[in-house]
UniProtKB/TrEMBL annotation:
Domain of life (superkingdom): Bacteria
SUPFAM superfamilies cross-referenced by the UniProt entry: Winged helix' DNA-binding domain
Name assigned to this protein: Transcriptional regulator
GO molecular function annotations of the record: DNA-binding transcription factor activity
Database matches in Pfam families: HTH_5
Domain HTH arsR-type: 1-88
InterPro entries: ArsR-like_HTH (IPR011991), HTH_ArsR_DNA-bd_dom (IPR001845), WH-like_DNA-bd_sf (IPR036388), WH_DNA-bd_sf (IPR036390)
């Protein structure tokens, strides 16, 4: 099954894992210790993040470290950007409409 970035960020636990490892890699056990669910559950979340390309697992001796690959999030940014533009245009249009219909009662009085 092909996984995508949107599936990865859909879960709050996976988003928190990404936040934890965004600045520096962490040992898989260190990640798991921050959650009140089983290590197996965390490993499944990490596996999903790995399948989506948001996390890379690196082996150092006996330890495995999770490292974030945040450049994959550009797919989400690009998708959301199109809607930001639409909503910005709609709010600008609403503001212009309100300004055009604004009555003198609603405008603040000018000081002389």
């Amino acid at each position: 099954m092909r996984r995508d970035v949107f599936q990865a960020i859909a879960d709050p636990t996976r988003r928190e894992i990404i936040n934890m490892i965004a600045h520096h890699p962490l040992n898989v056990n260190a990640v798991a210790e921050n959650f009140e669910v089983s290590r197996t559950a965390i490993y499944k979340h990490i596996k999903m993040l790995t399948e989506c390309g948001l996390v890379v697992i690196t082996q150092f001796g006996r330890e495995r470290f999770c490292e974030a690959r945040l450049e994959r999030l550009t797919e989400v940014i690009d998708w959301a950007e199109q809607y930001r533009k639409v909503w910005t245009e709609r709010f600008d249009s609403l503001e212009n409409s309100l300004d055009a219909t604004d009555s003198p009662k609603r405008k603040p009085a000018r000081k002389k």
